[in-house]
Design a protein that fits this description.
The protein is an alpha+beta fold and 339 residues long. Helices cover 26% and strands 23% of the residues. The protein contains 7 helices and 17 strands. The protein has a 7-stranded antiparallel sheet. It has a 5-stranded mixed sheet with strand order 5-4-6-7-10. A 5-stranded antiparallel sheet has the order 13-14-15-17-16, with no helix packed on it.
Length: 339
C-alpha cells in the first residue's frame, strides 16, 4: 500500500515507460513514492526531498541526486545531476533547469486539459526543449534522457485560480524554509566566502546564447496592467519568459479602421519599432523584440518597469517637490526627443 503524500509535495512524476518504472523501485527513491490524486504511484517533487537545502533548488534528478535515475546508454549518458526543478524567487514560478551538457535530451510539453482533444500526442504541438517554466496546475509530459514521465500536480482546491494561488504559496513557503535551513548550516558545510546574494540573483545574471530567441512568453501567465483602460499606445501586459521565468512587458497595439488605414498604421508602427531598435539612450526604454505584426494586434516587448507617470506624480505632496519633479521629468523627455 502506498504511503500518504507529503504535505510539501508540489507534484508527482508518474512513470510512463519501463525505464522510468525502474526508478520507482530504487531503494533511495522508495521513501518519496506516494499516491497521486487519481491513485497512481509517483515520485514526489518538493522542497522536502533534498537532504541538504540549496536555496532555489526544489529537487534534483540524476545518477547521484535527490531522486536517483541510474539508466544510462552510450547515446544518453546519465550525469550526476541531469535536471533540477528550481524556484524563481522574484516571479515565484517553477523552472525545469537542465544541468546536463546534452540540453536537447530534455523536452516537456503541456498535456491538453480535460475536454480538449489536443494534438494526436495529446500535448502542445511544439514541446519545450531544455530549460523552461512549468505552468502551475497544468500537467506536463517530460522526457529526460531515456526516461518518460508525466508531471501530475496535486489538487488542493476544486477552483483552478485558487489551486494556482495555493501552489504558489506552498512553493514560496518551501523556498523560505529552505533559506532558513541554509542559515542554520555551519561553516563546515559551505565555503567561508559563500555569497548568499549570489543564490538570490542567479536569475538576473544567467546567460542566454545568441542562437536562442530572446524571449518566449508563457501564455497562461500574461497579466494585464493598469486596470481596464488602454493607454495612448495600446494595452500593457506583464509577461513571463518561458525559458528563464523572468518578467518583461508586452505592449499590444490595436490597429483599427478600414484595410487601407490598418496597413498604413502597421507600416508606421513598423517604422517606429525599427527606430526604437537602433536607439540607445538612458531615457528611452530598451527594445526587446516584437511579434504578431501580421495581425491587427501587434506586440512590442520591453523591460517591465514598475509604476507610471501618474503614480509618480502622486508620490509627492508639496508644491516645491512637484515643481522639482516636473522639471526633472520634462528634462528627461526633452533630452530623449532631442536624441
Amino acid at each position: 500500500m502506498l504511503r500518504s503524500v507529503h504535505p510539501q509535495t508540489l507534484f508527482h512524476f508518474v512513470l510512463t515507460n519501463q525505464v522510468a518504472w525502474e526508478a520507482l523501485d530504487h531503494d533511495d527513491n522508495k521513501k518519496f513514492v506516494s499516491e497521486t490524486n487519481d491513485g497512481q504511484p509517483g515520485l514526489e517533487i518538493g522542497f522536502h526531498v533534498p537532504i541538504k537545502p540549496d536555496s532555489r533548488v526544489i529537487t534534483r534528478l540524476g545518477r547521484n541526486a535527490d531522486l536517483i535515475l541510474r539508466h544510462s546508454t552510450p547515446q544518453k549518458v546519465m550525469s550526476r545531476v541531469y535536471v533540477a526543478f528550481e524556484f524563481h524567487p522574484t516571479t515565484h514560478f517553477i523552472l525545469l533547469s537542465v544541468r546536463s551538457k546534452a540540453l536537447t535530451s530534455v523536452t516537456f510539453g503541456l498535456v491538453s486539459p480535460p475536454g480538449d482533444p489536443g494534438t494526436p500526442e495529446n500535448t502542445m504541438p511544439v514541446p519545450t526543449l531544455g530549460d523552461g517554466v512549468i505552468v502551475y496546475s497544468r500537467d506536463h509530459t517530460v522526457s529526460i534522457a531515456s526516461y518518460e514521465f508525466k508531471l501530475v500536480w496535486r489538487t488542493l482546491s476544486s477552483t483552478l485560480g485558487q489551486n494556482i494561488a495555493l501552489f504558489k504559496d506552498l512553493a514560496l513557503q518551501g523556498y523560505n524554509s529552505c533559506l532558513q535551513r541554509m542559515a542554520a548550516f555551519g561553516s563546515r558545510d559551505r565555503p567561508s566566502d559563500y555569497d548568499h546574494t549570489e543564490a538570490q540573483s542567479w536569475h538576473v545574471t544567467r546567460l542566454n546564447t545568441a542562437k536562442c530567441q530572446l524571449f518566449e512568453e508563457v501564455k497562461e501567465a500574461r497579466e494585464r496592467l493598469g486596470g481596464d483602460d488602454s493607454g495612448a499606445f495600446g494595452t500593457v501586459y506583464k509577461a513571463v519568459d518561458k525559458k528563464t521565468g523572468n518578467l518583461f512587458a508586452i505592449k499590444v497595439v490595436k490597429l483599427e479602421g478600414d484595410p487601407l488605414q490598418i496597413q498604413t498604421a502597421r507600416a508606421a508602427l513598423h517604422r517606429e519599432v525599427k527606430n526604437l531598435e537602433r536607439l540607445n539612450h538612458p531615457h528611452i526604454i530598451e527594445y526587446l523584440g516584437c511579434g504578431a505584426f501580421e495581425t491587427n494586434a501587434p506586440e512590442i516587448r520591453t523591460p517591465l518597469r514598475e509604476g507610471s507617470l501618474a503614480s509618480l506624480t502622486k508620490s509627492v505632496e508639496s508644491k516645491q517637490e512637484r515643481r522639482i519633479l516636473a522639471n526633472s521629468v520634462t528634462e528627461q523627455i526633452l533630452t530623449a526627443l532631442d536624441y
